[in-house]
């Protein structure tokens, strides 16, 4: 197998599907010759032409509305938003149209679209270009929410997202675009709603999403030196959520730290923590559930403050130790 | 603003406190931490200190008043501040609201609580609770290793190992090198006690054979029930008396061949004792009575029950109208009943109706014993062996065949004196058997 980057994996997933399926096309701002804000679509317009790799005006509402409309007519559009922060402008199309159509038409209409968009901080892009707003969309029934953490997961999950007849919001992480992993050349699909145990352990479970998966793995390495065995569970999709894998892991370890980059208040971590408390894992909990998320502040532009505002490896190490009364 | 002074709740069971004395008078200046008054709870006497600084404005209660906890018993505030003439009513006497509780706590900082609150719930993780529940461990007995003494699963597991034995058992186990976790405790909540450890240690060194277990059933069960009923419901008193059997032996010697010839059965001491007992019972109807419900039934017939040991139990066939039978007839009757009893051929009639019973253990090396009354009878006679003993007769020591009679009686129906009178007359009759002819 060869190693490719996360952004290459996303591109490859789209290309392979577009070669097979003429209904799939992509639309977004500057995705043509420029290759998109993060270069993900670089080279695609050369292969597929401007009909299927469509540059759009700067109007997230318009782009997503066009995607919803074309999806209703049977196309399978992929929207690229330059920054996930701008989903606020696409919100009416996504929440009131895309998420509702299939339900309101009793299944006669479907909206098989994918909205791809980079999220997260760490690039010095400041408060309007660094947020993690996945909890907003996860709250809306009718939308699926995906957060791949590796190139391998990105390719397989994007294939599943494109195959899905429901609107899928596909969060790519800016600082993960350049990370590499082994990715099969052939097409493959990772079912939405299947968590992945990124590292097995016995003492504490860390449930981490997106870039936090990598920080959790780093923390686990450090903690191993102190004899603490950490299991890292990556849900991979927030909706649907693989509750079973999380519950099993927590039942095994009895301790859990939930960590995401989004602001802790109102974040998906609260949902996961509550789900654990309501589940059979409750009786196995041997320490209060710990949640880690960003501070309730706009993401600062100053790089040091930006770092300080979201969980870092030492924070995760500290939280794990806290569950073990070793902090 | 004047601050209330409350009757504190000093223990989980405290509902009222009794005011023993006021240590401040209205108008006195008060410092924080100064004793205001002394109370008595169900457990202790204690001085209650002020949480406020100012002037003691009001006291609502007198010495010896019983005051419910959380009641306002006075005020501390600024001089001449107005306070109610009557104490404010308790918000909710039965169950103080959450808010009230926390307000109270604010008034009384935990650090100054003179008595450690026993009402605090145990702080334990769900996993610790599960393991404690599974192993019957009282969480409050487990010391927690977590923050604020929170009990974790590991603490409970540790407690299962250490807490499940008494200190003595632990010591013995350590001395004998016995693994406590292998021992099934017999104490409360499976607590391992001294005997468990020593028993276990002994069993480890000596091979132990499983005991044979026999179900309590049939005659054994009937005997068991009857004995239990008798001892549990009847206040037994047993009197003993030693009888010189010289003359009875002579009587038996002379009558044995006669009766054997007539009936084919050998006369034994039992029949002579039956004869004498039946005769004397005629003079002591209280001893020949039955206690049935709230009535003492004075029986006119004298039917003597004879305790017969059979395989797996004891049965008491009855010799009816023993007082009217001669020794030959008694010998035949008692021998026949004994045989039938051992062969299990007694009819229900033959097994009932006795008014007084005799239990003879004279064939064994038994002198006296405490026989158990056969209800509804009111007395039973226990017969011991005849053994030669030195006895003083007319000032000189002689060897005489002596026998102990043990008379148990139901003290509900008879008192000691009449029972003693009966036994005395019986002794006299056996020592002078010719009196039976009178």
From TrEMBL, chain A:
Cofactor dependence: thiamine diphosphate
The keyword Oxidoreductase belongs to this UniProt entry's keyword annotation: yes
Enzyme Commission designation: 1.2.4.1
Annotated ranges, domain Transketolase-like pyrimidine-binding: 4-179
Record's keyword annotation contains ATP-binding: no
MF-aspect GO terms: pyruvate dehydrogenase (acetyl-transferring) activity
Assigned keywords, A-Z: Oxidoreductase, Pyruvate, Thiamine pyrophosphate
This protein's name: Pyruvate dehydrogenase E1 component beta subunit
TrEMBL record, chain B:
Keywords: Acyltransferase, Lipoyl, Pyruvate, Transferase
Ranges of compositional bias, category Acidic residues: 79-98
Region (Disordered): 79-125
Names of required cofactors: (R)-lipoate
EC number: 2.3.1.-
Entries under InterPro entries matching the protein: 2-oxoA_DH_lipoyl-BS, 2-oxoacid_DH_actylTfrase, 2-oxoacid_DH_E2_comp, Biotin_lipoyl, CAT-like_dom_sf, E3-bd_dom_sf, PSBD, Single_hybrid_motif
Superkingdom, taxonomy of origin: Bacteria
Enzyme class of the recorded protein, top EC level: transferase
A Pfam family: E3_binding
Domain Peripheral subunit-binding (PSBD): 123-160, 164-201
Family: Belongs to the 2-oxoacid dehydrogenase family.
Protein name stated in the entry: Dihydrolipoamide acetyltransferase component of pyruvate dehydrogenase complex
Protein's organism: Virgibacillus litoralis
């Amino acid at each position: 197998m060869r190693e490719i980057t996360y952004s290459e994996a996303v591109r490859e997933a789209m290309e392979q599907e577009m070669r097979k399926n003429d209904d799939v096309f992509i639309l977004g701002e500057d995705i043509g010759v420029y290759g998109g804000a993060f270069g993900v679509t670089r080279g695609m317009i050369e292969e597929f032409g401007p009909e299927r790799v469509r540059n759009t005006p700067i109007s997230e509402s318009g782009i997503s509305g066009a995607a919803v409309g074309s999806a209703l007519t049977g196309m399978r559009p992929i929207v690229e938003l330059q920054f996930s922060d701008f989903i606020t402008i696409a919100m009416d199309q996504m929440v009131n149209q895309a998420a509702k159509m299939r339900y309101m038409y009793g299944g006669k209409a479907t909206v098989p679209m994918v909205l791809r968009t980079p999220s997260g901080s760490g690039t010095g892009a400041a408060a309007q270009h660094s947020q993690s707003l996945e909890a907003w969309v996860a709250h809306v029934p009718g939308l699926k929410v995906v957060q791949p953490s590796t190139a391998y997961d990105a390719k397989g999950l994007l294939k599943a997202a494109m195959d899905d007849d429901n609107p899928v919001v596909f969060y790519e992480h800016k600082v993960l675009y350049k990370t590499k992993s082994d990715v099969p050349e052939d097409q493959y699909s990772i079912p939405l709603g299947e968590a992945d145990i990124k590292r097995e352990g016995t003492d504490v479970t860390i449930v981490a999403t997106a870039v936090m998966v990598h920080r959790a793995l780093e923390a686990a390495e450090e903690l191993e030196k102190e004899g603490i065995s950490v299991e890292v569970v990556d849900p991979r999709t927030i909706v649907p959520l693989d509750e079973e894998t999380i519950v099993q892991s927590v039942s095994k370890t009895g301790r859990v730290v939930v960590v995401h980059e989004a602001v802790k208040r109102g974040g998906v971590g609260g949902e996961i923590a509550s789900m654990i408390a309501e589940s059979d894992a409750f009786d196995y909990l041997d320490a209060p559930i710990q949640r880690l998320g960003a501070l309730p502040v706009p993401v600062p532009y100053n790089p040091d403050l930006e770092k300080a505002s979201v969980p870092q490896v030492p924070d995760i190490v500290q939280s794990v130790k806290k569950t073990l009364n070793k902090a | 603003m004047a601050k209330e002074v409350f009757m504190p709740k000093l223990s989980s069971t405290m509902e009222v406190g009794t005011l023993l004395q006021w240590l401040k008078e209205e108008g006195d200046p008060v410092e924080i931490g100064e004793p205001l008054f002394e109370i008595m709870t169900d457990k202790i006497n204690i001085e209650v200190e002020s949480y406020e600084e100012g002037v003691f404005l009001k006291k609502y209660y007198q010495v010896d008043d019983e005051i419910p906890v959380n009641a306002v018993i006075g005020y501390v505030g600024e001089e001449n501040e107005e306070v109610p003439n009557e104490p404010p009513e308790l918000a909710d006497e039965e169950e103080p609201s959450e808010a009230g509780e926390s307000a109270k706590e604010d008034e009384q900082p935990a650090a100054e609580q003179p008595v450690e609150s026993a009402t605090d719930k145990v702080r334990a993780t769900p996993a610790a609770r599960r393991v404690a529940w599974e192993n019957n461990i009282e969480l409050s007995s487990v010391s927690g290793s977590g923050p604020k003494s929170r009990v974790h699963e590991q603490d409970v597991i540790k407690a299962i190992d250490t807490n499940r034995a008494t200190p003595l058992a632990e010591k013995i186990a350590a001395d004998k090198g016995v693994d406590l976790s292998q021992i099934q405790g017999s104490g409360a909540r499976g607590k391992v006690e001294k005997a468990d450890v020593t028993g276990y240690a002994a069993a480890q060194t000596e091979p132990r054979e499983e005991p044979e277990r026999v179900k309590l059933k049939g005659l054994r069960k009937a005997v068991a029930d009857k004995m239990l009923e008798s001892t549990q419901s009847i206040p037994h008193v047993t009197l003993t008396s030693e009888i010189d059997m010289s003359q009875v032996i002579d009587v038996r010697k002379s009558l044995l061949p006669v009766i054997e010839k007539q009936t084919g059965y050998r006369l034994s001491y039992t029949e002579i004792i039956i004869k004498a007992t039946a005769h004397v019972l005629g003079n002591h109807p209280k001893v020949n009575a039955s206690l049935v419900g709230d009535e003492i039934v004075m029986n006119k017939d004298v039917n003597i029950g004879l305790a017969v040991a059979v395989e797996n139990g004891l049965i008491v066939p009855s010799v009816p109208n023993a007082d009217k039978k001669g020794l030959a007839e008694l010998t035949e009757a008692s021998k026949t009943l004994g045989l039938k009893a051992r062969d299990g051929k007694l009819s229900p009639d033959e097994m009932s109706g006795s008014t007084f019973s005799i239990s003879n253990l004279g064939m064994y090396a038994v002198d006296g014993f405490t026989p158990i009354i056969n209800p509804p009878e009111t007395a039973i006679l226990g017969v011991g062996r005849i053994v030669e003993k030195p006895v003083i007769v007319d000032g000189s020591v002689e060897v005489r065949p002596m026998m102990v009679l043990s008379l148990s009686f139901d003290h509900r129906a008879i008192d000691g004196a009449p029972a003693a009178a009966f036994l005395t007359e019986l002794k006299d009759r056996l020592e002078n058997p010719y009196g039976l002819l009178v």
